[in-house]
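Batch job 17 of 40 flagged for manual review because the log was empty.
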Amino acid sequence: MCDRVLTPQAPGWTGREYRLEDKVAWLRSRLGPGDEAIETHFAWVFLQGDRAWKLRKPVRRDTMDYGTLEARRVDSEEEVRLNRRLAPDVYLGARPLARAASGQLEIGGDGEVVDWLVEMRRLDRSRMLDVMLASGRTTRADLERVAARLAAFYADESPAINEGAVLAARLDAQVRANHAVLARLDAEAANALRRDQLDFLAGHRDWLETRASRGCVIEAHGDLRPEHVLLDDPPAVIDCLEFDRELRILDRAEELAFLELECGRLGAADAGRFVAQECLARLGDTVPAGPGSFYRSHRAATRAKLYVWRASEPDGGSPAHWLATARDYLALARQAAADALPASAA
């Protein structure tokens, strides 16, 4: 495929190098009526006709490193590979953004590669689960199809952790890492949350051993939120966490608890709970209420930590907004952690 458009002499053009703003300006120049350019924290996404094009920013953060052209190529290819597991018809490929001999930019072709794009099918935003839930248009059949798609995915994935001690140590470390950040937000609440979550882990070693030995801990999606679920037939789930495999290693019950948590924040906890229970039933899996509440608490705490981080970043936008969101998640985490413990321990 070669898609060439003449390049205007954008500010910042230096002869042989294109800055990020030059690439963005060129990609913007291709947009027409009804098209859109969306800036995210780590990328630009251009919705053009029936396609979406994703351009990574050359940023470095923790385990995410897009600082080099080669790193952006590798991660673009990984994004396509991983997301094809749950959205095979959406992710079309990683495409070079190239500089032709004439100095023009083009997608594809044989010119010097200056960056990499992920090509996707443009989705109907009105069919995403969050929008469908908000408008009251979600049907039981929609949710059953999502549960069936997820169950097939989980059944296909090989176990990532087989030993309960490894799973317990991993969760313990994550709880403590969350606490180290959340203590800056509210030390008293963070301390209580850490205590309840660690008490749960100490009292459920046998259950964690069962989860690991049964192959329930897999390389999952990693970011199973309603806004990433397309209610098509078949449904698709987009935007997995491609940049860090460690963040994708989850008990499938924890990932489903995250979906339930996020549906609950939209006022549709019943829908999230239905998908989780239906998916687990299709897998012949049963998760008691206590462990389910723990996983929901753990996901809420992790989200709270992310929003505390977001508020502290130089381009954090509105820190007050992010901190308020973090407090909301922290409150949800505390309630779910209390629900996870026996009444005598809570």
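Reviewer: the log was empty due to a logging misconfiguration, but the result itself is present. The first strand starts at residue 2 and ends at 4. Unflagging and moving on to job 18.
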